[in-house]
């Protein structure tokens, strides 16, 4: 017989192209186990409402167990006539429990409240997986920071040499943004933990069912306050898509730096062979494909977010079939991150930094000029004049092709009488870095504290 859940008022089945357009099992089948969990909870509230006997409940739950085992083993799969995951699973239930019992489960629920609930369940699990993978990337960065606690590097603004910083401080900057992404996933979960089950098609249930009981059984914090909102809202999906797009953007900024760092010109780091690729024509090539795919996929994650927002825009309440388009973009974002995060963690943890080169480049480009200015300020010179004097030092050193620390005592005195030989004490990379010792700064003691706080934060997750 027909498997559609809505055949009664129709004199014919759907046209072929209509059915093909409608079909969603190729992507919503991954919700099958969540659907079955929802069915178990629903069967229990039907029983409590007196709509199933205890015997019927036992039979229903036994059939759902068999169905789940068959879904997991692959013995039961959707057929073309099954419009969506819900249709397929009702067919599977009826095949296992018989039409009389199997046909009772649909009372008081709609695919509209079902899909809104299952999608939330799926995304809440996905959020935990993505957060775990993100923490693996964090661990990789932390590993490198711990491996190189004292290594200096040129800190940059505008990609130009700015001031020396610790490599560990730079790596921990990326850690900070990734930990915010993990926090965002957790904050999101508090809003996503609301169950639309019991909202029905849009107006709620008339059969004395208890949405709070289902919500609790499915691990939600509460049932939806409003059945229209429960079935029609997808901001939980859009917010999830944003959080993972933001994560993608943060990852792409790390990736971009690895791409730059591993060029011949920078040579800050080399990629491990296992995490690089070669060229089919140029035998010498070692390419940073993991980093490039990270950068590339971040664009895809942004597209998934904007596509979903465009789908949601201007849809009248409550459910519209447009909403079937809500799932693939978010499923795709999750699938891409599941591929990306382990590869990125592997690539980052196996990078080899050339710390000697980083240290040698740290003072290049007169990155200690700010230290001259600040030394003069400590000597009582107004910053406006100190800045001017330090700039004068840069101009002279550049003209002579020497470093700031190589200016003679006479040259220093010519620039400003307050500029004595003692200034050379701050004209070292280590001295400059150590002087930035306010909370959050790059001084080794502050970076060590920061790293310890990060480690504690991760332990608490
Ligand atoms: N497959 C639909 C979706 O993904 C859920 C079913 C609701 N369909 C309906 N005709 N009311 O949104």
From TrEMBL:
The similarity comment for this entry is:
Belongs to the lyase 1 family. Argininosuccinate lyase subfamily.
- Cellular component annotations (GO), alphabetically ordered: cytosol
| First-level EC class | lyase
The organism named in the record is: Actinokineospora iranica
What's the encoding gene here?
argH
Under what name is this protein listed?
Argininosuccinate lyase
> Which E.C. number(s) belong to this protein?
4.3.2.1
Catalytic activity entry: 2-(N(omega)-L-arginino)succinate = fumarate + L-arginine
Its annotated compartments are: Cytoplasm
Q: In which pathway does it act?
A: Amino-acid biosynthesis; L-arginine biosynthesis; L-arginine from L-ornithine and carbamoyl phosphate: step 3/3
GO molecular function ontology, one term from the record: argininosuccinate lyase activity
Extract the signal peptide range: none
Q: Keywords for this entry?
A: Amino-acid biosynthesis, Arginine biosynthesis, Cytoplasm, Lyase
Q: Which GO terms describe its biological process?
A: L-arginine biosynthetic process via ornithine
Fumarate lyase N-terminal domain: which residues? 9-303
Q: Mainly localized where? A: cytoplasm
